[in-house]
Amino acid sequence: MQFRLPRGTQDRLPEDQPYWEYVTSVAREQARLFGYGQIDTPVFEHAGLFQRGVGEGTDIVEKETYTFPDRSGEDVTLRPEGTAPVCRAYLEHGMHTRPQPVRMHYFCPIFRYERPQAGRLRQHHQFGVEAIGDGDPSVDAEVIDLGWRFTTALGLQGLSLAINSIGDPSCRPQYLAALKDYYAPRLGEACPDCRMRYERNPLRMLDCKRTDFACQDLVAEAPRITDFLCADCDVHFATLRRYLEALDIPFFINPTLVRGLDYYTRTVFEILPPEEGAQSVVLGGGRYDGLIEQLGGRPTPGIGFGSGLERLILNVKRQEAAALSDGAPVDAVVVSLGEAAASVAVRLASDLRQAGHRAVLAQPGRSLRGQMRHASALNARYTLVLGDAEVAAGTVQVKSMDTGEQREAPLAEAASLVSRA
């Protein structure tokens, strides 16, 4: 039996690594500039964390989590999103005693049993940030600014920022009542998922992505939540827009933007590339002022975003946003002919690595032609050839693979010759 990848997963091959290193290094630098320290949480958590934090009526909890009993019989869940675990850590480690907001960033695998699609797999990876402990709209602007700087620093072009406010517990009930009144006579046109959401979480109907029913047309004509905001939410949203204008970040208001998780309040936002489609979002997030309280803490505001690394890399490649090599070139391949030369070649390759060069030892015993072909396949800059004559003389043949030029040099000078090239 030949085993294959589980559906919705992928191998990260050596030629993929430069893109991952590029995207994560840009993310780390932007997080550093904004003062966001790194946090790492476990790959799995108690299942109740996500049931309470993400919401039992969401597609993620009902359909997409990898939840199973461990050997003690306790239900655990592979992490389906990054915010709830960070909030759990904030509570567990008493971070409320630190200067607020506590600014954190993370890189983590995410597990969701959903239909695999471009840039979104059942196991994908996320760069996320959270700012917990301050509800001022200036923090909203800071988090959005970080996300905007990160995506533009990658070299991505044609990005757009969509924002919305989804209110808070004081004004959202009035909107939900109006939304249900609007949908009630039209439920027959909606998809089965939306008919279920109508009873359990009508706001999620605005997040429906299905096109095989009339859901998109219904969303387009639905009441707008920004028309129902209370005074505090309205001022918060207006202040955020003023800050974004001061930052020269272009944005547009999308009144149907709600995001997919129950814990969001007030500000929600997404950064989108030029390509259309529900799955084109490269970064999204929002404010979750009630989440800490839902997890057993005192009322504590928070805001953050998540960005799927696979989808970002897909866009970096599509736009050719960065000139990256498909693989790390080898500085030198050491070629040997004969048993005595093989022992010297082993030591020479080790000395080259000690000097900081990427060195590969061609397989001793193969023909000269075979070893040279191996060096060419590795895109080596130099081959260092050792035979019985070179061993006796304490020399090595140094060949440039770019120019074909070859010369003999003292064995002791091999590392410095590679360095000067």
Topology record:
Layout: H1 17-33, E1 37-38, E2 44-46, H2 47-53, H3 59-64, E3 67-69, E4 75-78, H4 83-92, E5 102-111, E6 123-132, H5 137-153, E7 160-165, H6 172-183, H7 192-200, H8 215-221, H9 231-246, E8 252-253, E9 265-272, E10 283-287, H10 291-294, E11 302-308, H11 309-319, E12 332-336, H12 339-354, E13 359-361, H13 368-377, E14 382-386, H14 388-393, E15 395-400, E16 406-410, H15 414-420
Parallel strand pairs: 1-5, 7-8, 12-13, 12-14
Antiparallel strand pairs: 2-4, 3-4, 5-6, 6-11, 7-9, 9-10, 10-11, 14-15, 15-16
Short description:
The protein has about 425 residues and is an alpha+beta fold.
Q: What is the second-level CATH architecture of the largest domain?
A: 2-Layer Sandwich
What is the strand arrangement across the widest sheet? 1-5-6-11-10-9-7-8
Overall morphology: elongated
Please count the helical segments. Answer: 15
> By helix and strand content, what is the structural category?
alpha+beta
Stated plainly, the CATH topology of the largest domain is called BirA Bifunctional Protein, domain 2
* Low-pLDDT ranges: none
Count of extended strands: 16
> What is the CATH domain class of the largest domain?
Alpha Beta
How big is the Rg? Answer: 28 Å
Report the helical percentage.
25-40%
Strand count, sense and barrel status of the largest sheet are: 8 strands, mixed
CATH superfamily of the largest domain: Bira Bifunctional Protein, Domain 2
Q: Can you describe what's shown?
A:
It is built from 15 helices and 16 strands. The mean pLDDT is 91. An 8-stranded mixed beta sheet has the order 1-5-6-11-10-9-7-8, sandwiched between helices. Strand 15 (395-400) and strand 16 form a beta hairpin. Helix 5 (137-153) packs parallel to helix 9 (231-246). It folds into 2 domains: 14-171 and 229-319, Bira Bifunctional Protein, Domain 2 (BirA Bifunctional Protein, domain 2), CATH 3.30.930; 332-420, Anticodon-binding domain (Rossmann fold, 3-Layer(aba) Sandwich). With 421 residues, it is of the alpha+beta class.
